């Protein structure tokens, strides 16, 4: 079998266009643009690329983008003060503090300072709790993007066997919660799982989010399964001195067995940014007390 390629880049472009339309309707109703603030501490080159890309997409969707760049040696208290200011700013609907933070900062403390109603990353414990009990809140962008791709591909997910490889707060755990809510039978596997290949082989849906380049092999996959590759790993390329991006899935091998697979790049990555814009717009409607149809985006 040769897998269908799930075009996350195209799906994300479509989602961003829908967000753009709704952003215009928000502006007409609220008399202001929706606003997303992104805070970057330090000069990590990869983080700078993501933040620039987020800022550009935010403006393209017709929303305001507020960027705060702080030096790597910023005191934690000063970062918390910036977050508090953004919490209180009515022009800011969503706040994203780019992770990872420098080592001298307590990430949990910083996340806890973000108002849960502006926490468009869905990282605050309040939003993790809301997701766990099925209340409206904010769901982390990457797993929500994965779910959108899965539903687009498979329709109703109920009764399907799903294996999530990885148990991070950012991807694995919220992904499992979302799949449980879709009535999948969910297994969360990780680096300590015994017979990982056998566990994965049962799955109709595989979500790989472990951060290990090309770990998931073709003979782990049930023929016809849908494979979502969350990994973004930069590895040396064949040509001396060059690098390339690969996922957590051995794409060439797995594409021979799976029914459908997301590529890296061009799969889950672009969805993360599109869902961030979606969450920021949802935050704007909620913060203004305006109705947004439940199935609008
Ligand atoms: N508070 C916070 N929220 C985040 O959502 C967050 C973060 N911190 N820190 C860093 C990670 C990483 N991340 C990505 C977003 C888009 C792509 C993306 O668009 N990737 C492209 C390729 C980009 C490239 O070529 O490097 C793709 O997969 O096709 C990747 C990674 C969001 N993150």
Automatic annotation (TrEMBL):
<keyword id="KW-0378">Hydrolase</keyword>
<comment type="function">
    <text>Catalyzes the oxidation of 5,10-methylenetetrahydrofolate to 5,10-methenyltetrahydrofolate and then the hydrolysis of 5,10-methenyltetrahydrofolate to 10-formyltetrahydrofolate.</text>
</comment>
<dbReference type="Pfam" id="PF00763">
    <property type="entry name" value="THF_DHG_CYH"/>
</dbReference>
<dbReference type="InterPro" id="IPR020630">
    <property type="entry name" value="THF_DH/CycHdrlase_cat_dom"/>
</dbReference>
<comment type="subunit">
    <text>Homodimer.</text>
</comment>
<keyword id="KW-0554">One-carbon metabolism</keyword>
<dbReference type="Pfam" id="PF02882">
    <property type="entry name" value="THF_DHG_CYH_C"/>
</dbReference>
<keyword id="KW-0368">Histidine biosynthesis</keyword>
<keyword id="KW-0521">NADP</keyword>
<keyword id="KW-0486">Methionine biosynthesis</keyword>
<feature type="domain" description="Tetrahydrofolate dehydrogenase/cyclohydrolase NAD(P)-binding">
    <location>
        <begin position="140"/>
        <end position="285"/>
    </location>
</feature>
<comment type="pathway">
    <text>One-carbon metabolism; tetrahydrofolate interconversion.</text>
</comment>
<dbReference type="GO" id="GO:0004488">
    <property type="term" value="F:methylenetetrahydrofolate dehydrogenase (NADP+) activity"/>
</dbReference>
<dbReference type="InterPro" id="IPR046346">
    <property type="entry name" value="Aminoacid_DH-like_N_sf"/>
</dbReference>
<dbReference type="InterPro" id="IPR036291">
    <property type="entry name" value="NAD(P)-bd_dom_sf"/>
</dbReference>
<feature type="binding site">
    <location>
        <begin position="166"/>
        <end position="168"/>
    </location>
    <ligand>
        <name>NADP(+)</name>
    </ligand>
</feature>
<dbReference type="InterPro" id="IPR000672">
    <property type="entry name" value="THF_DH/CycHdrlase"/>
</dbReference>
<protein>
    <recommendedName>
        <fullName>Bifunctional protein FolD</fullName>
        <ecNumber>1.5.1.5</ecNumber>
        <ecNumber>3.5.4.9</ecNumber>
    </recommendedName>
</protein>
<keyword id="KW-0028">Amino-acid biosynthesis</keyword>
<dbReference type="GO" id="GO:0004477">
    <property type="term" value="F:methenyltetrahydrofolate cyclohydrolase activity"/>
</dbReference>
<dbReference type="InterPro" id="IPR020867">
    <property type="entry name" value="THF_DH/CycHdrlase_CS"/>
</dbReference>
<keyword id="KW-0658">Purine biosynthesis</keyword>
<feature type="domain" description="Tetrahydrofolate dehydrogenase/cyclohydrolase catalytic">
    <location>
        <begin position="6"/>
        <end position="121"/>
    </location>
</feature>
<feature type="binding site">
    <location>
        <position position="232"/>
    </location>
    <ligand>
        <name>NADP(+)</name>
    </ligand>
</feature>
<keyword id="KW-0560">Oxidoreductase</keyword>
<keyword id="KW-0511">Multifunctional enzyme</keyword>
<comment type="similarity">
    <text>Belongs to the tetrahydrofolate dehydrogenase/cyclohydrolase family.</text>
</comment>
<dbReference type="InterPro" id="IPR020631">
    <property type="entry name" value="THF_DH/CycHdrlase_NAD-bd_dom"/>
</dbReference>
């Amino acid at each position: 079998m040769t897998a269908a390629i799930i075009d996350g880049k195209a799906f994300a472009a479509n989602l961003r266009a829908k967000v753009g339309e709704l952003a215009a309707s928000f502006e007409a109703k609220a008399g202001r643009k929706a606003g997303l603030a992104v805070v970057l501490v330090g000069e990590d080159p990869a983080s700078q690329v993501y933040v620039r890309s987020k800022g550009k997409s935010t403006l393209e969707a017709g929303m305001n983008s507020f960027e705060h760049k702080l030096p790597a040696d910023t005191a934690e208290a000063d970062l918390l003060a910036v977050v508090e200011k953004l919490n209180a700013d009515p022009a800011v609907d969503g706040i994203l503090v780019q992770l990872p933070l420098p080592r001298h900062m307590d990430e949990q403390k910083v996340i806890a300072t973000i108002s849960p109603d502006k926490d468009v990353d869905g990282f605050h414990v309040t939003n993790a709790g809301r997701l766990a009990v099925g209340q409206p809140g904010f769901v982390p962008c990457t797993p929500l993007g994965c779910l959108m791709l899965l539903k687009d591909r498979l329709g109703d997910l109920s009764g399907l066997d799903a294996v999530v490889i990885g148990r991070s707060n950012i991807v694995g755990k919220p992904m499992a919660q979302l799949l449980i809510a879709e009535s999948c039978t969910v297994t969360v596997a990780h680096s300590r799982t015994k017979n990982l290949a056998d566990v994965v082989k049962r799955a109709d849906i595989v979500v790989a989010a472990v951060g290990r380049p090309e770990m998931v092999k073709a003979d782990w996959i049930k023929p016809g399964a849908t494979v979502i590759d969350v990994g973004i790993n930069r590895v040396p390329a064949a040509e001396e001195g060059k690098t390339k991006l690969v996922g957590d899935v051995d794409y060439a091998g797995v594409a021979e067995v799976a029914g459908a697979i997301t590529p890296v790049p061009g799969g889950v990555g672009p969805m993360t940014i599109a869902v961030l814009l979606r969450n920021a717009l949802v935050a704007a409607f909620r913060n203004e007390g305006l109705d947004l149809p439940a199935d609008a985006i």
